[in-house]
Backbone:
């Protein structure tokens, strides 16, 4: 992902922060692999029970990679007693919102203006109760 956005220095900042947060135990990043190639990722922020930075390489979009990755994280979370997960989406990302609803992230939590390195965006947060899957 960083290589695809080499002209955007925010990616280097996010990489460093992600590594530090994983080392400190604040988050856990999960990867989808095809052989040794990383084709997708998502990060679980423990403090908020939030899925963040869900990404799949363009050539693998629409092939179930994100669905499998999120399902894996949900099962991992259930195994550790996490009762729900939250995911955020910008209102303009209608396709992503539809996918999240399909996955069961339908309970509206809140809307917040988030600042991402000098850029303010509106994010809608939805929750999925993992206990409903049992």
Residues:
């Amino acid at each position: 992902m960083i290589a695809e956005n080499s002209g955007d220095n925010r990616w280097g900042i996010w990489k460093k922060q992600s590594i530090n947060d994983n080392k400190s135990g604040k988050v856990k990043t999960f990867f989808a692999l095809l052989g040794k190639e990383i084709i997708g990722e998502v990060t679980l922020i423990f403090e908020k029970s939030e899925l963040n930075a869900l990404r799949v390489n363009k050539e693998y979009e629409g092939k179930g990679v994100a669905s499998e990755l999120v399902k894996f994280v949900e099962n991992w979370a259930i195994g550790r007693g996490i009762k729900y997960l939250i995911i955020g989406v910008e209102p303009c990302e209608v396709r992503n919102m539809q996918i999240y609803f399909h996955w069961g992230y339908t309970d509206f939590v809140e809307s917040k203006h988030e600042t991402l390195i000098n850029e303010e965006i509106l994010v809608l947060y939805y929750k999925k109760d993992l206990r409903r899957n049992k």
